[in-house]
Structures are given as structure tokens and as C-alpha cells.
Amino acid sequence: MDLRNIAIIAHVDHGKTTLVDELLKQSGAFRANQAVDERAMDSNDLERERGITIFAKPTSVEWKGKRVNIVDTPGHADFGGEVERILSMVDGVVLLVDAAEGPMPQTKFVTSKALALGLRPIVVLNKVDKPDAEPDRALDECFDLFASLGADDDQLDFPHMYASGRNGWADHELDGPRKDLTALFDLIVNHVPAPRQVARAGEDFRMLATTLGSDTFVGRQLTGRVESGRLKVGATVQALSRVGQKIEQFRVTKIQAFRGLQTQDIEEAVAGDIVTIAGMAKATVADTICALAVDEPLEAQPIDPPTITVTFGINDSPLAGRDGKKVQSRVIRERLHKEAESNVAIKIADTPGGEAFEVSGRGELQMGVLIENMRREGFELSISRPQVIMKDVDGKRMEPVEEATIDVDDEYSGAVIEKLTGARKGELVEMKPAGAGKTRIIAHVPSRGLIGYHGEFLTDTRGTGVLNRVFHGWTEHKGSIPGRRAGVLISMENGEAVAYALWNLEDRGKMFIGAQAKVYTGMIIGEHSRENDLEVNPLKGKKLTNVRASGTDEAVRLTTPITLSLEEAIAYINDDELVEVTPNAIRLRKRYLDPHERKRMAKTA
């Protein structure tokens, strides 16, 4: 069957997964009476809860006798490692752009990767039926973006369409019939070239592994595009590393192809198709699976280096082991190395003591997703504050800089600019009206300055601002950047918090816990109203006497405590604090710093 391989790329929440839903429905991938969940491609629990795509997932549809393999990709730059691997499997991309917001930071990130590979994009202006949509402006911004990224003439001459993914239509003209996605299907089939690998069907089998999975019954599974030749079930093949070293030789036990939302067993994989194979014991992502006669590996796309590191350690608090079953450092190490094997954007290193592990990645969201998955699996962990990875270039100390794109109401723009360009050492790049009483601010800010800023940003903008960030480049170290200014309230006792004690402590600051919460010495129970830390006793009850008077017996009414999410807790803490993560709780606490750790932190600052 004639093949087309495409990826759908876009910024977060611009409608990729919703559009894929409609493509599947209108191509006949589902029965007419079949019950299908909204955002069917987001099959992971975390993806459904957060409303974002985390893992790249292939699917396929049939259209007029041709098979179209579609890869739904993550929009957030923290998961850019997924996008960089997936783009090597496809021959074209559909760039989805919100007609109201226009190209955003993550749009720029994934588009630069696609253009660098020579892929010719199709631009789809989505959500043109929104009241604030400006499709013509968004289209001009897409052209400017392509030009700034060094696109060639063929890539600048891109076709475009107007669409509403939720309503299931796409047209070449803004005032088109708005019936279905037929025009988009036809454009994909006609514009995207057939895989050039099809012409190599007579050569030896070769396939570059791009994603790693596992199955309870068949074991390890590798997914990739067949670059040349054919592969049958039962054939003996080998795995070569990036440098050509032979890793293993194995017999292929199963070949699966993507058909709609399901995978289907097939007997033979052909050049150009995207398939999953099983049978290997050691081969992993970026390895070449090939026939025994092949001795040269396929070139794997380089992955951008990590920018932050977080220390994962065992939970050694007094409440350790009460919620989770996986608490030993050995078990944590095995889980982290398993993650690094399938996620090439993550790097793992042991700390000098051997009881903790430095996990390097793209951003706080990527770390938060990994930690959340581990706590749901029964792990207990202690997590440090994220530290930015520095590097030396020609004797100069360099640090990563991020491009922050911010949409805020006009009245809050001054406060945001003051925070970013003041203590956080950012540089204002552009400021322009975004319509509907909003201002768009683009600034280049050191990654250190954005750690922990999001909560402060929401407070400054009364919850109405939108902040997007993406890695921009490296710059010379800009000196010290102050962290959290407020101190914390620290428990000096072990036990259960008493409502009367918390009520009396409310004058001292904001509480993170409620009555009857389990506390221990060194646990952070609230934020102090001043800059210093304060030790308090949350167990102190009211002294009872036999005298009652209406003027002295006041009712205890506690203010609702602040509940920090996992990402908020990690960004909130200082260098001498930890986040204690268990399957049922997220707690903050102070930690003891040994001389080696103090020296490292002083050097980082």
C-alpha cells in the first residue's frame, strides 16, 4: 500500500490531539457506534489529568487507498526529546497554530527541528472560529518564523489551511464549506512525499529504534521506521550501537503495525512503514536493528543536552515507609536507569555518597512527570531544588537562558517586567499589544531566574497571565539571583497538629497543613511572614480549666491551608530544603547539609 508518514507538531493546547481524533473518526478507523474517549490518543493517566501530551504516539489511517501514518507529538519543550526522535521517522509535518495566539515558543522549538531535517511543513491555522481569532496575522507570523529559522525556498512556499479541529473541518479558504477534513487528507497525500525508503526494499533490512516500550507477555519492544529491506517474523537480526558496536543478536518474535488506536500483528514489515518489533534483550533507543550482513549503523539525530539537574534521594524522614513500598536506594536506582533507557533526554549520575542520584533533564515539568509516575508506582523519595547546569566555554562560565513569552492584562505588564528585568536578570526583547486588553512580553531570562517564578507570576497577574518558556541559548553567568525571600515555619515537635495551635500561628504566616496532619521535627508547616525561618510548636493545645467565660472562649476557625502541587513544591524550596514525596503526601522539610554540599551550593550561586 502507498505510504505517507507525517507528524503533527504544535504548541501546548493548540489542538493536536483533538485534530488527530477527528482524522481517525473521519477516516473510518472507528465503527459508527463505537464509544471513543475525547483525546483518545492521550492514553496515559497523567496526560488525561493534565490535559497535555507527554509521550509521542503513532497511529495510522487509510485514505483513498493510501496508508497515512500519523505521529502525535508533545507540545511542551520539556518533552522535546520525544519530538527530536520522532521527526526522524516522518517525511512531512503538519504545523498546527492557534489562529488567536499565533506561533508560540514551543512552536518555534519543534519547527526549528523539522526545518533542520529538510521537512516541508503544512500549516494549519486552527480554532479560526474563536471570537478573537486573527488567522491572517497568525499566517504572517508563521512565515516570519520560518524565515528567521533559516527555511529554504521550498519550505517557505508552504501550503496552508483554515480549520477547527474540535468541529472536524478544514478548508483552503476561510469562508469554505466547513464540512469535513477531506481537503486536509488530500493535501497530506499530495504534498507529503512517499517514504524514500520504499525504493530500498531490495536491500538488507535496517531500522533505527526511536521509542522503547515493554509488554507483560512479549518483553521489550522497539518502534521505528524501516529504512530498507523487509523483515519477517522469526528472522534473526542484530543490534548495532551508534558507533557500530554489536550489542546483541536476536530472533524477532513479533512485528506489530499501528492500525487506528490499536496495534495489529503482521507477518512482514516493509521499507517505509512504522512498526514495533519484539525479541531483543539489550537493544534500546538510537540503536540500529539490521540484518546480520550490515556493519554500518544508521545515523541517529543528536539530542539537545539537559539544562537542569535534580537530586533524587531516599526518604529518611521520621514518616518514611508508611505509605510506599519502594524505599531503598537500590530500587530507586533501577527505576531511574530504566527511565533513562527509554527517555534519551534524561541523564542519571550517582552522587559521591551513593545514596542519592542526580537526574538531569529539560525542565521542571519533565522532572515533575517522572516523580509523579514514581510516586504512583509506590516509591518514596526526597527531592532537592532544581539546579541549573553550567558549562565552561573558552574559560568563561556560561549558563542557560530561556525565552519567556508572556501574555498579561495591560495593567499587570509593569509588575511582570520589573520582576523579570530586575532581580531575575532578564532582558526585555519585545513588547506589543496582543488585543483584547492584553500585552505580549518576550524576554530572555536566565533559567535560574525562572525557577520558582511561576507562582509569583500568577500572584502578580491575579491568575490571568500565561507564561510559556523555551530554551534559547547560553550566556555568560549573570551573577547571583536571589531565591525565595520569605522564611518558613518549622515544626519543633513530633505528632499530630492541633487546631488551636495552628489558629494561634496564623498571625505568623500562611499554613501548608491542616489540623490532625502528621508533623515531625524539621518539617516545614507554613510560610513565615518575614524573611527569617521560625521554629514553632504546632502541637500546643489549649490549657483547660473549670472556668468558662464567653469573652475568653473563642471559636477556632482555621484558614484553608495552601496545598502545593508537586511542581510548585519543587520550585518553592530553597537549597537547604527538600520535598518529601510519598504515594499519599507531599511534604516540605529542612535538611542537614554536609561540608561538601555547602561548598557545591556556594560555587553554584
Account of the protein in words:
The protein is an alpha+beta fold. The protein has four domains: 2-192, 3-Layer(aba) Sandwich (Rossmann fold), CATH 3.40.50; 198-290, Beta Barrel (Elongation Factor Tu (Ef-tu), domain 3); 391-476, Alpha-Beta Plaits (2-Layer Sandwich); 488-572, OB fold (Dihydrolipoamide Acetyltransferase, E2P), CATH 2.40.50. Helices cover 22% and strands 33% of the residues. The protein contains 15 helices and 35 strands. The strands form six sheets. Strands 18, 19, 20, 21, 22, 28, 30, 32, 33, 34 and 35 form an eleven-stranded mixed β-sheet that branches. Strands 12-11-17-8-9-16-13-14 form an eight-stranded antiparallel β-sheet. A seven-stranded mixed β-sheet has the order 2-3-1-4-5-6-7, sandwiched between helices. Helix 9 (364-376) packs across helix 14. It is globular, with a radius of gyration of 27 Å. It starts with a strand and ends with a helix. The mean pLDDT is 83.
Output the radius of gyration.
27 Å
Poorly predicted spans: none
Helix content: 10-25%
Task: Please state the structural category.
Answer: alpha+beta
CATH architecture of the largest domain: 3-Layer(aba) Sandwich
CATH class of the largest domain: Alpha Beta
CATH superfamily of the largest domain: P-loop containing nucleotide triphosphate hydrolases
The proportion of strand residues reads 25-35%
Please, how many domains?
Answer: 4
- Reported by name, the CATH topology of the largest domain is Rossmann fold
Tally of contiguous helical segments: 15
Main location: cytoplasm
GO biological process, one term: ribosomal large subunit assembly
Subcellular location: Cytoplasm
Domain Tr-type G: 1-196
